[in-house]
Design brief:
Blueprint lengths: L25 H7 L1 H9 L12 H18 L11 H11 L17 E7 L2 E9 L8 H10 L5
Antiparallel strand pairs: 1-2
Helix pairs in contact: 1-2, 3-4
């Protein structure tokens, strides 16, 4: 069912700044920065890229953005669109997981992560779902809203 939505830009969800790595392919990075690139693939929290944002700073920025959105939502359903790295940073933060688990969270293109916030506590109800690309996703949202006692 179509809804009239007004998109709002939340600066906290801007993609991570990769500094000198910005816009370069994985094959280029592996050639130009072989040691750093290999360390990045294992634990990006331990790699400082020239003129880039640190992962810990991205996590803090994204978490603050998430909290602003939750506070302004009046308990309603909100859709947040973000890049895979930003999504991972938020999920790690919400789960109080270590940043070295960054690559352990799969985030496919156009995936959905469903986070229910009930009594101020965010709960990860669904992660990396792509069922909406194959089926009607509305039922999953309705079930989550019912659990969180939100009418949609």
């Amino acid at each position: 069912m179509p809804r009239r939505l007004t998109p709002r830009v939340e600066a906290g969800f801007a993609e991570m700044s990769f500094g000198e790595w910005e816009g370069k392919s994985h094959s280029t990075l592996s050639k130009e920065f072989p040691e750093q690139y290999q360390r990045w693939l294992v634990d990006p929290s331990q790699v400082e890229l020239p003129r880039a944002e640190k992962l810990v700073d991205v996590q803090a920025r994204v978490r603050r953005g998430f909290e602003r959105i939750v506070e302004s939502s009046d308990g309603g359903v909100v859709a947040i669109v973000g890049h895979g790295g930003v999504n991972r940073a938020l999920l790690l933060s919400l789960l109080h997981a270590e940043a070295r688990a960054f690559w352990k969270l799969r985030q496919d293109l156009a995936c959905v992560n469903l986070i229910e916030v009930f009594e101020g506590i965010p709960r990860l109800a669904l992660a990396n779902s792509t069922t909406h690309l194959k089926a009607d996703y509305c039922q999953l949202v309705k079930e989550a809203a019912t659990r969180a006692r939100i009418s949609i």
